Amino acid sequence: MSIFKELKQRNVFKVGIAYLVVAWIIIQLADVLAPQLKLPEWTPRMITFFVMLGFPVSLVMAWALELTPQGVKKAGGSNMPIYIFAVVLAAVSLYWYFDEEAEPGSETVQAVEKQGDAVVPAGPPSIAVIPFENISTDDANEPFTVGIHDDLLTQLSKIRPFKIISRTSVLRYRGSDKPIPEIAVELGVSYVVEGGVQRVGDNVRINVQLIDAAADEHLWAETYDRELSAANIFSIQSEIAASIANALQATLTQADEQRLNTPATDNLNALEAYFNGKRLADQRSRAAIESAIGEFERAISLDPAFALAYAGLGYAWLLIPEYSASVDPKLVRDSAKSAIARALELEPELPSGLAFMGWSKMVHEYDWASAEQLLRRALELEANNSDALHWMSHVLSWQGHHAEAIAIARQAVEVDPYSPLMTMNLAYILMDDGRFEETAKYRELTLELRPDYTELWRNTWLTFMRAGEFDKATQALVNWAAGTGRDVALARQLGSILEHSHRTGEMAQFPEELFADLAIGNENLGQVYAAGGDAESSIAFIRIALDERAGSRSVLSMKINPLYDFIREDPRFVEMLKEANLYP
User: Fold this and answer.
1) C-alpha to C-alpha distance for 409 and 412, rounded to whole angstroms
2) Is residue 539 part of a domain?
3) C-alpha 321: how far from chain center
4) Beta carbons of 215 and 151 less than 8 angstroms apart
5) Residue 580 falls within a domain, yes or no?
6) Cβ neighbours of residue 297 under 8 Å, at least 6 residues apart?
7) Cβ burial 301-340 (10 Å sphere, 16+ → b, else e)
8) Are residues 123 and 57 part of one domain?
9) Residue 141 sits in the same domain as residue 227
10) Are 299 and 315 within 8 A, CB to CB?
């Protein structure tokens, strides 16, 4: 008897059709009733999965059992064909279910769903606060308006259910006439906050609107007219954050409310100096960071109990070695640590202070455990803190925990999608894992966001050296030299020496003055000598950088950097790994 006839004789087709009809009804009822009964969102999907899994079971039972006047009996013949068929169907059901789940390692990346012309993220409310308009007649009030906007971002970030797009990415919309739904699509958010600030004499007016991006409708709006004082500014910001939370039905915990209602300072001039310091530090150049240090110190002199100002001062000191090869490492280390410690003494649960101390613990003390603990606590308090995400990705990556590091670096890009720093960081973290092709994708994206981002070119030539692509490393060195005012001919010479060493297998011979003239400090020399196959010089300069405790990437990457593979078993290298707490 053919398999088709046997299936028909055993009523497998009838049972299958009947099961599918009933299954369809159950699935439809689940879709309709689950929202009405306020069941979890995954309920209809789970019901569908079990209904599908039950289909091959019903076919097996129809094949194996026979309904007779004497009751249900086991049918004769081989059961193997139907068992094979059932296993295949079950496998398809399982594949369908799990294939729809999020990609492994991407839990921190928001899934998005198409709704009309807008992209609306699934999950917690996602909000972009676009730059506020300075509606004062005096242009000198622009920094004050920028500070109000920046502080509101900080306040909203304290509400943990919210995903808040970071400042760097929303600044591109200052003065933009783009429609709100279009802005929301580009930033991947459900809601947009816009507003304006007017400062006249001793009074301030702040108007704010919360907009549902998909519907392009106002959900809430308010205008605040108050006497101009630091206390009133913080009070307005807290009221705005609480009102937005209420409009979006977000539950504020007692801890959330306490954080929102605790003013940072009661001194308006100190607040304005702090606003100026943050704006300058975010420009990330040596001159701007030095000016930021002055503004933070002014804020502290006006209010010695201003924890945020101390944290900002520590942050500026942490930044400056990235933009100056001549700064005294000990001065940086002591100044950063002292300022951040004072910030946390004044406010122990200050997210920015915890994040900055975590970074300091790693780069200055090689205390990886404390760094990770501090950064994780900062993210518990402020999940959208892009600095904490950025630094946490490095803490994990340099210890070899690449999967979580990449996931966190991707989250940082999601929170700040138009930040060249965050896209460059993701490129760097991917480089740490040897994913050089994907690194190139984010390197190109970074250059699209900021073509003159010279810091990227430094990371780029290091990337190409690690990948063994020395022709590309030469071009990156040239670009870096041109962008930073260095001697392009010397940069090309350095690249050519490294290329020759790689091609011939001979140890590179560098002119004595080359590195001094190119101002390549101890931060990078350990890696450069390693790329040239010079074990003795590489170890010597890693030792210098290790002792300086200035955050050298040559030191921090020791555990996972392939350039060091040829000296990895050298007892001196092993000893330095132990000193940096990176062994085994």
Assistant:
1) 5
2) no
3) 22
4) no
5) no
6) 313
7) ebbeebbbbbbbbbbbbbbbbebbeebebeebbebbbebb
8) no
9) yes
10) no
Burial (CB count within 10 angstroms: exposed 0-12, middle 13-18, buried 19+), residue 477: buried
- The one-letter code for the residue type at 94 is L
Q: From 99, 125, 149, give the residue that closes a domain.
A: 99
Same domain, residue pair 165 and 82: no
Residues 167 and 256 in one domain: yes
In this predicted model, what pLDDT tens digit does every residue of 512-553 receive, in sequence order? 899 999 988 888 899 999 999 999 999 999 999 999 998 888
Last residue of a domain, one of 263, 284, 315: 263
CA 556-561-564 angle, 5° bins:
105
% pLDDT > 90, the chain: 55
In-domain check, residue 525: no
**Where residue 125 sits, what CATH number does that domain have?**
3.40.50.10610
Beta-ladder partners of 114: 119
Q: Structural domain of residue 165, as residue ranges?
A: 112-263
> Is the domain of 69 the same as that of 152?
no
Q: What is the average per-residue pLDDT within 192-212?
A: 92
- Host H or E run for residue 147: helix 142-157
Instruction: Kindly give, in sequence order, each residue whose CB lies less than 8 Å from that of residue 239, ignoring residues fewer than 6 positions away.
Output: 222, 224
84 and 39 co-located in one domain: yes
Collect contacts of 315-320 with beta carbons under 8 A, ≥24 apart: 315/281, 315/352, 315/356, 315/387, 316/277, 316/281, 316/289, 316/292, 317/293, 318/356, 318/359, 318/360, 318/363, 319/281, 319/284, 319/289, 320/286, 320/289, 320/290, 320/293
Q: Report the sign of the C-alpha dihedral through residues 505, 507, 509, 510, in that order.
A: positive
CA dist., res. 188 & res. 210, Å (int): 16
Three-state SS at 67: strand
The pLDDT of residue 100: 43
DSSP-based three-state secondary structure for 164: strand
Please tell me whether residues 176 and 246 are part of one structural domain. yes
Q: What is the pTM of this model?
A: 0.76
CA distance 540 to 432: 23
> 196 has which bridge partners?
133, 207
Please report which confidence band the pLDDT of residue 322 belongs to, taking 50, 70 and 90 as the band edges: confident
Number of domains composing the chain: 2
Report how far residue 139's alpha carbon sits from residue 274's, in angstroms, rounded to the nearest whole number.
Answer: 19
Q: Could you give the CA distance from residue 387 to residue 253 in angstroms, rounded to a whole number?
A: 24
Whether residues 259 and 120 share a domain: the answer is yes
One-letter amino acid of 130: I
Cα separation of 285 and 522, whole Å? 20
Q: Which two tokens stand for residue 582?
A: 């990176």
Whether residue 584 has a cis bond before it, omega within 30° of 0:
yes
Cβ neighbour number for residue 284 with a 10 Å cutoff = 17
- Residue 88, Cβ neighbours under 10 Å: how many? 11
Q: How confident is the model over 160-200, as pLDDT tens digits? A: 788 999 988 999 999 898 999 999 999 999 999 999 999 88
Sequence-distant (≥ 6) Cβ neighbours of residue 23 within 8 angstroms: 51, 52, 54, 55
